[in-house]
User: Fold this.
Amino acid sequence: MAKISTIGVLTSGGDAPGMNAAIRAVTRAAISNGWAVKGIYRGYEGLINNEIKDFTSEKVSSTIQRGGTILKTARSEEFMTPEGRQKAYDNMVQAGIDALVVIGGNGSLAGAQIFAQEYDVPCIGLPGTIDNDLYGTDFTIGYDTALNTIVECVDKIRDTATSHDRIFFVEVMGRDAGFLAQNSAIAAGAEAAIIPEDKTDVDQLEQFISRGFRKSKNSSIVLVSESKKDGGAMHYAERVRKEHPQYDVRVTILGHLQRGGTPSAFDRILASRMGVAAIEALKDGQRNVMVGISNDQIVYVPFNKAIKKDKPIDRELINVLNVLSI
Assistant:
C-alpha cells in the first residue's frame, strides 16, 4: 500500500452539529502525525470542481463550538456517475491527496465506498447525521444536539397545547428512522411517537387515540417521523380531523431548525474522539471503514455493513413511552 503523506477531508450530504469538531480533530490529529491536510469544500461536488485548499491547525481554531460545517456541503449528482468520479480522482491526485476522510450520512459513505472500490483510495467515514440511522454505531455526530433542540421546542409547544386543549402533531426529521421521534417523545413527556419502525398491522394513530387521549387528558403532543411514504404529521392531522372531528388539531413541522445550533458537549466529544480515531485507522493501514462508537468504545465498521444494514430501534423504548404516557 502506498505511503500516506497528505489526507483530504470533506463533509457531504445534510449538515449536522459537531461536523466542525470532527473536521478540527481530523486536521489536528493528521498534523500531529506529520501529515499534510487538504480541506475539500462542498463535499464531492468540490472534489469534482477542484475546490481544495491547504488546511492548517490555525484554520480550525475556534470552530469546535460552531454548528454547520466550515467546509460547506452539497449533494452531488455528478459524483454518482463514473465520469464525475474520474474527475474527482484526477483532482485528488493532482492535489497530492493519498487518503480521504468523509464526514456524512448514508449517501456520503455509499459514495466513499464506490470511490474506494474504483480507484483504490483509502477512505475512512465518520457518521455525521442527526438521524442516528447508521448501523454499527450507537450514536452519530449531531444526533444528541438535534434531540436537545427538539425537546426544547416541544417544551414550548406544550405550554400552548395545555392552554388550549389541543392535540399537537410535531414532525421531526429522521428519514426512515424513528430514533429522534422516539427519544425526544420520552424526553419531552409526549403522549405518543409515530415512527417507521413501529409499522405493524396496528394503526398507530388509532392506538394513540384509544389509549393515550384519555378523559384525564385535555391536551396531547405526538411526535411523528417525517415520511415520504405516509406524508408525516400533516397526514395524521388530516385523519384526526376526518375521523375524530371533536378534537382540535395543530401541526408543527420543525424542519431545518433541528439541524442547526451549537453542538452539545456530547457531540463535541464524540466528534473529537471519532476524528482522532479516523487518523489512527489510516495509520494502521485500515481502509473503507466507518468509525463508530459502541458501548463507549471506538469501533471500525466496514462500509457495506454501516450502509446496507438497518439499525434496529430498541423496542424497550417504545414500551417506556407507552408506560409513561398514561
